[in-house]
Every structure is written in structure tokens, then in C-alpha cells.
Amino acid sequence: MTSPTEHTLSLLRGEGYIAAVVEHFNPWAKIRQDLFGFIDIVAIRSDVAGVLAVQTTSGANITSRIEKSMGKKELFIWLKAGNQFEVHGWRKMGKRGARKLWQVDRRKILKEMLH
Fold first, then answer.
1. Quick one: which H or E segment has residue 14?
2. Average pLDDT over all residues of the chain
3. How far is CA 7 from the centre of its chain?
4. Distance between CA atoms of 84 and 46, rounded to whole angstroms?
5. CA nearest to 53, candidates 24, 15, 82
6. Average pLDDT in the 64-89 region?
7. Phi, psi of 92 (to 5 degrees)
């Protein structure tokens, strides 16, 4: 099975981004840790200003990841510095009886959305 992170890397690279995973596994705490507490992947492209940060997850968890990210003061600073942020939720979808394909629910978070 391909992970949401792998799907997002493939998507971004297909759009011309240079993308890298910035979350890491902390062996002492036995958990995965995101950059600044909300970033799994960073991506850059020469024709897009700033750095795109992405939190990637399963489709079922997209709302909780948005809420988690929007609660971080670091996200406001990230956006205010001229960068971008998206949450990608991946799930297999398709008509009944047809082959199911991976699809992304891609949500862009703007600094105006933060409280």
C-alpha cells in the first residue's frame, strides 16, 4: 500500500515541484514528528513564491489535521513570511463495481483563516 506521503510527493513532483519529506521518526518517543509540529513535506518551484508546506493524511483524518495545524502559532508565522500551506487527505474512490482510484482532497489554508 502506498502512503499518503508517497501520494503527495508524486502529485507535487508531477506539478513540477522539488519536494522532500521533513517529518522524522523519534525513536526515543516512538512517534513521528512533524517540522514545526504541522509540516510533513516541503516543496519549491521556481515560478511560485515561497515554500509550500503540506500536512498529508488519510481522507478520514483531514478535518482533525486542519484543526491541529490551525492551532499552531508557527503556522501563522509560516504564512505571514510569504509561504503556503495545504492539507492533503487521500482516499480511494470510484463508482460501485468499478476500480477504485486514489484521490486527494486538497485544502489550502490562508493566514486570513487563522484566529
1. helix 4-14
2. 94
3. 10
4. 14
5. 82
6. 96
7. -85, 130
CB 52: neighbour CB atoms within 10 A? 20
Strands (E), the chain: 18-21, 24-26, 31-33, 41-45, 48-58, 84-93, 101-109
C-alpha cell at 100: 477504485
Domains of the chain: 4-113 (3.40.1350)
Looking at residue 72, its amino acid is K
Grid coordinates in use for 3? 502512503
pLDDT of residue 70: 94
Distance CA 56, CA 90 (A): 8
pLDDT attached to residue 113: 87
Q: Return the CA Rg of the chain.
A: 15
Once rounded to an integer, what is the mean pLDDT over residues 6-23?
97
